[in-house]
Predict the 3D structure of the following.
Amino acid sequence: MNTLRLRPPTFDDEADVMSAHRKMLNEGFTFATGLRENEAWPEYLNRLDSYQYGQTGQWVPSTFLVADVGAKIVGRTSIRYELDALLAHEGGHIGYGVVPSERRKGYATQILIQSLDIAHRAGIQRVLVTCVVDNEGSATVIQRCGGVFDSVALSMDGSMVNRFWIE
């Protein structure tokens, strides 16, 4: 069995990331965080680098990584090193997703475990992770990774979001 690894997207990942992005948008989930319509791939990759250092002004310092299994992108994670008001309310420190065809294979748990390791190594001891209330699979993953339910919040898009803390 191939091991899941988190890594930055590369120039060679454009087709796979764009395919995953289109599939996830059908579910109302943004796969490629911050991707602008008709944006050139090299420009997007450069902007992702600037997010890591909080250089954009509109985004907190964060890292976007794809989840790769045997050279196939199966998911992604965004790790935010700070929380602004919106993230503290409904977004959290970590946002992850798995491509629909790759679900129920344990990848979400692996993505979250590795994301938590990165967050903890960056000095975030108490990590906020959220999911939409009706996403039982994600809630199970979060709890399996040590998530303790905190509250339900009304998100800006009108959905209800479960909030969990992981130490």
The chain has one domain: 4-124.
